[in-house]
Amino acid sequence: MNIHEYQAKALLKGFGMPVLDGRVVRSPDEALVAARTIGGPIVVVKAQIHAGGRGAGHFADDPGGKGGVRLARTPDDAQQAAVAMLDSTLITRQTGPAGRVVRRLYIEAGCEIARELYLSLLVDRATGRIVIVASQDGGMAIEDVAAATPERILKEAIDPATGLSDYQARNLAARLDLHGRSIRAFTTVLRAAYEAFVSLDAAIVEINPLVVTGSGDLVALDAKMSFDDNALFRHPELEELRDENEEDPREREAARHGLAYVGLDGTIGCMVNGAGLAMATMDIIKMEGEEPANFLDVGGGASRERVAAAFRIVLSDQKVRGILVNIFGGIMRCDIIAEAIVAASRETGLRVPLVVRLAGTNVERGEEILSRSGLKIIPASDLGDAARKIVAAVRAEGVA
Ligand code: GDP
Ligand code: MN
C-alpha cells in the first residue's frame, strides 16, 4: 500500500525525522489560509498523488507549463497555484500518459537548499536484509543516477540481529561528504527512517531530496513510503491512510474478497488457482504471442462466492478480450469452480470468448455443469491446448 507525501512526512516526524511545517488542503481557499498560517517569504505548493517526478511533470491542460511542485511568494500566489492544480490531471514519468487527478495539495514552508541528497531504505531480497541506498545526487530520479554513474550510489545492508549501528550512519555520512553538525543530523535522519521502516513493516522509505541547508541542518523535503500489504493487519491505523482514488479499482475489489490479484496491461484475463500455476499460465499465454490482463490466484479452498467475485472482476475489465480459466482441483473442487463461473457469467453476461481447462477433483462433474449451462465455453484438455485456444479465439474476434 502506498501513501501520500504528507502522510509519510507525518509518520516519519513521529520517529524524529526533520520535516518542515506543512498543511494538507483540498481547495484554493484552504491553500490561502494555510500559506498565511505557515508564513515566511516562500511556501511550496505540492500536488499529492501516488507518483514521483511531480516537479518535472506537467498538467494535461497545460503541456508546456509548470509542474506539480510550485514555489509561491505570497498567499495569493499559493491560492492561484491551487486553482491551477486542483482537479487537474498531472502527468509525470511515473504516472504513465493517463496521469493522475490532483485532489489534495500539501502547502509547505519554503526551504533554503545547499545540497540535495538521496536516501532510501528497502528490502534486499537477495540478502534478506534492509539495505540503505544513498547518493550525493539527490533531487533527480535515482534510476538515472544508477544508469549513468552507478559508482555514485552507496549501499549499506543492515544486520537484523544488531540493527542500524551509529558506525554505519557515520560511515555513510562521510561517504556523502557531510561535515560538522550534518553528520549527527544524518544519524538522526537515518535512525528515524530505519525505526519507521521496521515498526511499520514498510516496503520502502525514500527521501528524495534529503536537503542540507545553508546552516548544515538536514530536512526531508520529499518523502515516499509504501507498506508490505501482508503486514497491514498489524497496523490498522495505516489502513486509514489509504486513498482509494489512487488505487486500481480492480485490485481494490479483489482485496475486498481476499483474492491475490494484480492488474496487467494485456488482453487475456486469467483465473487460476495457485501462484505457481498462475505464473505458468501467464508464461504460456506470452509464448503463444498474447499478453495477460491480470494475475489472479483464487487460492486453495476458495468458496463459490469468492470464485464468482474473482470471475466478475475479470469479466468487468474492459481491456479483457478473452478469458482463460485454468484450475487444478486439489482442495479446490472443479464443480464449485464450474458453478461459480456459470453464476457469474449469467449475472454479468459473457461478452468475450472463455476457455476453461479443469483437472483434478470432481473434474467430470465440473465439465458437465459447464456444458449443460448453455454458455459458449470452449473446453481445453491441457494448459498448452488452453493457451492456443484462447489466443486463437481472441484473434478470431479481430481485436487482439
Ligand atoms: P518530486 O518531483 O515528485 O520528487 O517532488 P519533490 O518533493 O522531490 O520536489 C521536486 C523538487 O522541487 C525538489 O528536488 C527541490 O529541488 C524542489 N523543491 C521542493 N521544495 C522546495 C523548497 O522549499 N524550496 C526550493 N527552493 N525548492 C524546493
Ligand atoms: Mn522527490
TrEMBL record:
InterPro entries from the UniProt entry: ATP-grasp, ATP-grasp_succ-CoA_synth-type, ATP_grasp_subdomain_1, Succ-CoA_synthase_bsu_CS, SUCC_ACL_C, Succ_CoA_ligase-like_bsu, Succinyl-CoA_synth-like
Pathway linked to the protein: One-carbon metabolism; formaldehyde assimilation via serine pathway; Carbohydrate metabolism; tricarboxylic acid cycle; succinate from succinyl-CoA (ligase route): step 1/1
Binding site for Mg(2+): N208, D222
UniProt binding sites for ATP: K46, G53, R54, G55, E108, C111, E116
Sequence intervals crossing the membrane: none
Keywords, ordered alphabetically: ATP-binding, Ligase, Magnesium, Metal-binding, Nucleotide-binding, Tricarboxylic acid cycle
Residue sites binding substrate per the record: N273, G330, I331, M332
UniProt family annotation: Belongs to the succinate/malate CoA ligase beta subunit family.
The protein's name: Succinate--CoA ligase [ADP-forming] subunit beta
Gene name linked to the record: sucC
